[in-house]
Design the sequence.
């Protein structure tokens, strides 16, 4: 990857093409990743953002993460959260415990729940329905985002029902949206390295596409900073853009970097300029995804403020309770308002479907 202060002529021509409103190819995106200076990408990404979203504002949201179980049979090499099924050391939260967590969230001003957990085939489908119904019964206005593709595929397996039917049942009882989580890097080589038991690229796409088809929209992400190649990051972006062309179901895209959690997973240190390059490239390449989020929780406040000048329009916070990732994020709405204001923007609160409040 180019680290100097000058982009190649070919990279500059591609940036000019993008700035003129033309879609760039994966091959051209790869050239930008390898040969463009991040400041040139940053400039065009900012202009692309401003063409649709006012640079006067930056948005934030508030939600409670509820990790309903840490038992998991997927065993991702980078994850320190899971416990092996049957070892007696993990947990499955009861619906009463989940309601207690939401009582606290509502007291803090968070009226949304992000329900996620390990893949535990011992939990019956009724467990998931009871939890969603209990939360919606007590808090009818609560937006519930839940279940990564690998969790959804697990529900398909334990019910024996077609995926579409499973999703329609979940939606009927109160599921509001889904995260495009568990993607990491959407190439088969990297999935074999990171999590060979996890959903394949095709399964991930099938799950997300079916969610979008039944009206369960949401977000997508990329997680890099391990053994992936530049080509594989761009391939991942291509999978997201192609799916979005078909469904339009992604409201936002979030680039993350891997965090050190286990000794058996190889992490490389991603410099700030590379993270901002990938974020800007996401804005430029994903011309059909309206919002680019920077995760202050994962990247920290300094990088988060720079990201808002590099194509991002949202900070993915406030997050109440995060057990899977080490959090550098904002704990209260007051912190989020101050953070965005200090960065030079007017804060706008939104919900998980990007309805501004």
Sequence:
């Amino acid at each position: 990857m180019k680290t100097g202060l000058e982009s190649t002529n070919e990279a500059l021509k591609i940036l000019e093409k993008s700035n003129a409103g033309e879609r760039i190819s994966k091959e051209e995106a790869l050239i930008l990743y390898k040969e463009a200076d991040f400041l040139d990408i940053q400039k065009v990404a900012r202009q692309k953002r401003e063409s649709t979203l006012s640079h006067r504002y930056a948005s934030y949201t508030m939600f409670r993460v509820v990790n309903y179980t840490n038992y998991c049979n997927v065993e991702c090499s980078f994850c320190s959260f899971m416990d092996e099924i049957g070892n007696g050391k993990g947990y499955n939260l009861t619906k009463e415990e989940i309601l207690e967590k939401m009582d606290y969230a509502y007291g803090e001003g968070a009226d949304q729940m992000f329900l996620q957990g390990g893949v535990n085939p011992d939990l019956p489908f009724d467990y998931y329905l009871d939890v969603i119904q209990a939360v919606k019964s007590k808090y009818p206005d609560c937006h519930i985002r839940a279940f990564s593709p690998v969790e959804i595929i697990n529900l398909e397996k334990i019910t024996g029902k077609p995926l579409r039917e499973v999703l329609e049942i979940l939606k009927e009882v109160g599921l509001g949206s889904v995260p495009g989580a568990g993607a990491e890097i959407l190439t088969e080589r990297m999935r074999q390295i990171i999590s060979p038991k996890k959903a394949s690229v095709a399964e991930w796409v099938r799950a997300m596409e079916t969610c979008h088809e039944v009206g369960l929209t949401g977000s997508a992400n990329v997680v890099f900073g391990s053994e992936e190649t530049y080509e594989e990051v761009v391939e991942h972006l291509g999978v997201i853009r192609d799916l979005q062309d078909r469904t339009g179901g992604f409201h936002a895209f979030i680039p993350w970097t891997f965090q050190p959690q286990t000794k058996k997973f190889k992490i490389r240190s991603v410099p700030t300029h590379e993270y901002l390059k990938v974020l800007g490239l996401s804005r430029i390449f994903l011309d059909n995804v309206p919002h680019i989020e920077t995760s202050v929780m994962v990247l920290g406040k300094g990088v988060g403020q720079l990201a808002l000048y590099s194509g991002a329009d949202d900070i993915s916070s406030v997050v109440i309770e995060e057990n899977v990732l080490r959090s550098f994020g904002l704990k209260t709405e007051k912190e989020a308002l101050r953070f965005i204001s200090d960065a030079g923007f007017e804060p706008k609160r939104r919900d998980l479907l990007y309805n501004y409040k």
User: Anything to note?
Assistant: Residues 230-247 form the longest helix (18 residues). The two ends are 41 Å apart (CA to CA). Residues 9-17+25-349 form a domain with the TIM Barrel fold (CATH 3.20.20.70).
